[in-house]
Amino acid sequence: MTDYGQDLLFGTFITPSARPVQKAVELAVAADEYGLDLATFQDHPYQPSFHDTWTLMSYVASRTTRIKVAGNVLNLPLREPALLARAAASLDLLSGGRVELGLGSGAFWDGIAAMGGRRLTAGQAVDALAEGIEVIRSVWDTSSPGGVHVRGTYYTVDGAKRGPAPAHDIGIWVGAYKPRMLRLTGRLADGWLPSLSYLPGGPSDLTEMNAHLDGAAEAAGRSPSDIRRFLNLNGSFSAESRGFLDGPPDQWAEELAGLTLEYGITGFILAADSPAAIELFAKEIAPATRELVAAERS
Amino acid sequence: MNYGHPLEFGTFVTPGNAPPHDPVALAKRSEELGFDLVTFQDHPYLPAFHEMWTLLSWVAGQTSRIRLAPNVINVPMRTPSVLARAAASLDLLSGGRLDLGLGAGAYREAAAAMGATVLPPRESVDALSEAIDIIRALHDVSSGRPARAGGTHHRIVGAQPGPAPAHHVPIWLGALKPRMLRLTGEKADGWLPSFRNVGRDGLVAGNKVIDEAAVAVGREPSDIRRLLNISGTFSATSSGFLQGPPSQWVDELLPLILEDGVGTLILATDSPAIMETFASEVIPALRAAAPAPTTFKPSGVRAKRRPGIGYDELPASLASAAVEPGDVEYPLVRSNYMRGGSPGLVLRPSTDAEVADAVAFAARHRHLPFGVRSGGHGVSGRSTNDGGIVLDLGRFKDFEVLDTAKRLVRVGAGMRWMEVAAALEPHGWALTSGDYGGVGVGGLATAGGIGFLGRKHGLTLDHIRAATVVLADGTIVRASPEEHPDLFWALRGAGANVGVVTSFDFQVPEVGDVGWAQFVLDASDTAQMLVKYGAAVEAAPRDVTPFLLMGAPQPGQPHFAQVMAMVDSGDPEKIIADLTPIASVSALYDQNVVIAPYAAVIANASSEPHRGQGEPISRSGFVRHLTPEVAAAIARLLGSGATPFFQIRAVGGAISDVADEDTAYAHRSANFQITALGRNRQRLDAVWDREMYGVTEGLYLSFETDPRPDRLTDAFPPATLSRLRTIKAAYDPTNLFRDNFNIAPSESAA
Predict the structure, then answer these.
(1) CA pair distance B439, B618, nearest whole angstrom
(2) By CB neighbour count within 10 A (0-12 exposed, 13-18 middle, 19+ buried), where does A202 fall?
């Protein structure tokens, strides 16, 4: 049993399809109106049927009032970290603190290379992500003196000015599965953002992954509760139970509460491209889950 | 020298981030004041500024009309391929409001400190040239193939183009030195210097270099718009260039327009007062004094024009939304759902008067094919063509409830049926259409409309109470039982022949949740199954309307039929009771029944642009009953393998309550409508003519592609055809509307 005690967050994972042009925006607006906490978007700049994720996030933030936006996760190999840091700070200032930064070390290297990006091995990509995070945090850190001086193997930012400071302390959330990335997440990140569908053994895989995160956090002098655990969810709503996250809302609430209490997951992000699913998740499943978790914790 | 571009005005707003919303407010103010565009500089190394692209995207969400442009992007700090996708996205999200100012980079040390690769000046121009190639390659979806561009400094290697932006995103270069000016002439759509940096002499010299470079690569100097950043202050007395009263500004700016060809003036200011004075006192005076613009298309677009079309004679009302083969939107509008096309011009009017202009334009091009398109699903109608004109009604999307008590609604001809269903659903209403929500209103409602509520509520066209029609001579009329009753009769079944309907008034029934069933029946003995099925359908209550689908038998697999049936009831027991006899005609392999709103059932289409290829091949007919003779003929047709997609739609019921002579659709006594799609015209025609023609009566024109003249008399029985010829002579005597089951006007009546 691992529960890090944070409040629960509920969000959507919206396909950033470019057609119909406004569909992703409309879904995010619906999620905002229904009261979800997060609208998140995958980032595959080599995918021609998708909107550019940063442009879409900026536009969505402009069209919403309350919900936070985040990449899930941004493709760091095709987004220069110093520029990304300034862009994130800008959007955070414009939106009144409604941006979080989901980051990934990159996948689909053929696609990245086709776009003119640098092809890295998995190990190199982990190191590059660590450097990128250092660059981003340094740009945001206006309390330290002097300019940004990160001289890395993959990114060198040497003498750039710091700032602007974002409106709030933007969380860096990392999509991680393998031990090296998990250790990086425990050491450097504010959040962990895996997808349930990528866990070969299902939720029980989370136990060992949490152990990597917790160990790395403690080794870096941090607390395991410094890292919020998110989970991207796929599932179905149906009148009768047909399996895990495939059933009626009260079954969902019980299963999500179980993920919180057993595995410390406190951010649930539903892959949903229909307003009806978003509404059900926001209006029925989120409050019921919060209630169950509050009852167990008290 | 003037290059003939329409005169435009913009603002250049400092993207400061403290307070963060100041530049947003100035952008909104620019829009309110009527400026054509708002622009922002891009200096990512300056922490006092917003990151430009984020700001631009945010402003897009806060404005609705004004165009947006970077002025100019520091290209060395961005990945051109990602920038291309971002530009396409922002152009799409903003509704085609993005222009792209690019620069080869400045503030080299600050850029390098951010981690950018900074090149010597000469190479930075080469790098910019590669970046332009990459952006253009990723915006060009016409080939559908992966793109390669760039090479030395930037590259894409097999990246798939897309998404296509909403319009051709023009690229303007901030150029000063000769190499950059030459690149502008060779590749760009605009030149964007600042007056402060070039001065009058620099404008003259720069224009010369650009013009020569353009001509040297086969472009025209007018392909490059000349833009200019300016700044100044208003004061009662003059103290220098653009330092004085508005009249002085006009006197100083006018020569730049008239003699140096500047088409866009961009005012750099963060002062709302300066913006207001410029908008109210300088812009009107400059517009009044500037020469009238010519209709502008770049030479690259004009090179792809088709012969015989007076592109430059298009009225201004149609020119801005028209799409020609060289336009970036062309791949999205050229084809239909099932038919590939290469029209020479697609007109996209948005008002009845513009439709009249479009009809008049088509009438001046009688030598060319002329198609009218609502949703682009037509199988029989040629709503695309090769080298001709297409009138696309896709912008007629208005929906209005005219009378709640009478359930009277007005529906634009360009709506899709799933959109209509979604609009009706909150009222507890539904209107039967076809079986696919992506079909457009106009084509279906003027031909018939054989849908899932047909046996209960009739054809779609049975619900028309009035329509707005643009006639061949450009007259806009109302057709109803009282106004132009002959026209009203004809457009319900032969609408494509008599005019362009832009909106329909429908009286729609109350429809609550419906039962929606899909099941699979054994069809090993196809003929026997069909006879039983036919009897069960005819015996079923009118609430039930089933469609049956079959394909050719596959070796080694049981032959089966798929049935999709709607029951106009939300009562599960009634739904099951109504469907059971139909589902029991042979062994049941699979079944699924849900209760849902009609709108949810018909929301089954994608909103993707059509990418049809080739020509659809389809035959159609009606039968009163699925007799043993008919069923045996169908079994032989399916057994021939000539039709991979075969459908029997139930009609009858309420459809048969209307007399044949009441509308131009005259197949009221049938209980079934039969369609066979084929891959090969000769093969399908041979089998259909042999097996089916003798056992069917008439045809449903929406599903018939046989061009032989006999089909006209199958579509319209003699009395109907005779009346249609008379009406055609009155409403379209020159036979302008001739591309869908053409009815030649009766000479005696003409």
Answers:
(1) 17
(2) exposed
Which residue, chain included where needed, has tokens 């029946």?
A: B521
- What's the alpha-carbon Rg for chain A, to the nearest Å? 19
Evaluate if residue B493 carries a pLDDT over 70: yes
pLDDT at B750: 38
B85 and A45 within 8 Å at the Cβ level: the answer is: yes
Length of chain A as a residue count: 298
Which residues of chain A have a CB within 8 Å of the CB of B85? 45, 48, 52
Contact of A54 with chain B, judged by CB distance below 8 Å, is answered with yes
Nearest CA to CA, how far is B26 from chain A (Å)?
Answer: 14
How many beta-carbon contacts under 8 Å exist across A and B?
A: 177
Residue B297 belongs to a domain: no
CA distance B434 to B444: 8
In 3-state terms, what secondary structure has residue A66? Answer: coil
B161: which chain A residues are within 8 Å (Cβ-Cβ)?
48
> Are B238 and B344 within one domain?
no
Last residue of a domain, one of B239, B258, B289: B289
8 A C-beta contact, residue B110 and residue B45: yes
Name every residue whose Cβ is closer than 8 Å to that of residue B450 and which is 6 or more positions away in sequence.
B434, B459, B649, B651, B655, B673, B700
Whether residue B442 has pLDDT greater than 90: yes
Assigned domain for B162 exists: yes
3-state SS string for B633-649: HHHHHHHCCCCCEEEEE
Q: How far apart are CA A252 and CA A225, in angstroms?
A: 25
Tens-place pLDDT, residues B561-606: 999 999 999 999 999 999 999 999 999 998 889 999 999 999 988 7
Measured in angstroms, the CA of B321 and the nearest CA of chain A are apart by 18
* Cβ pair B10, B2 in contact under 8 A: no
The predicted pLDDT at position A1 comes to 58
Q: How far apart are CA A295 and CA A291, in angstroms?
A: 6
**Best A26, A76, A94 residue to mutate vs chain B (most B CBs within 10 Å):** A94
Averaged pLDDT, B501-506: 98
B423 and B356 housed in the same domain:
yes
Strand pairing report for A172-174 and A99-104: parallel
Q: Which residue of chain B is at minimal alpha-carbon distance from A22?
A: B93
Over its C-alpha atoms, chain B yields an Rg (Å, rounded) of 31
Question: CATH number of the domain that B496 lies in?
Answer: 3.30.465.10
Which of B266, B289, B312 finishes a domain? B289
Residues B479, B536 within the same domain: no
Q: Which of B448, B437, B69 is nearest to B229 (CA)?
A: B69
Model confidence at B307: pLDDT above 90: yes
Question: Does residue B295 surpass a pLDDT of 70?
Answer: no
**Which pLDDT belongs to residue B749?**
42
Residue B450: which of B290, B284, B652 has the closest Cα?
Answer: B652
In this structure, are residues B324 and B330 in contact, taking their beta carbons and an 8 Å threshold? Answer: yes
The dihedral region occupied by B589, where left means phi > 0, alpha psi between -120 and 50, and beta the remainder, is alpha
Nearest to B345, CA basis, from B395, B304, B286: B304
In a domain? residue B103: yes
Residue B235: count of CB within 10 angstroms of its CB: 12
Over 60: is that where the pLDDT of B106 sits? Answer: yes
The residue range of the domain holding B632 is 514-596+617-704
Q: Which amino acid is at A125?
A: A
Q: Give the pair of three-digit tokens for residue B70.
A: 């970077």
Element (H, E) at B226: strand B225-230
A164/B93 Cβ within 8 A: no
Domains and CATH numbers, chain A: 9-297 (3.20.20.30)
Q: What is the pLDDT of residue B747?
A: 62
Neighbours of A149 (CB within 10 A): 12
The verdict on A183 touching B (C-beta cutoff 8 Å) is no
Whether the ipTM is more than 0.95: the answer is: yes
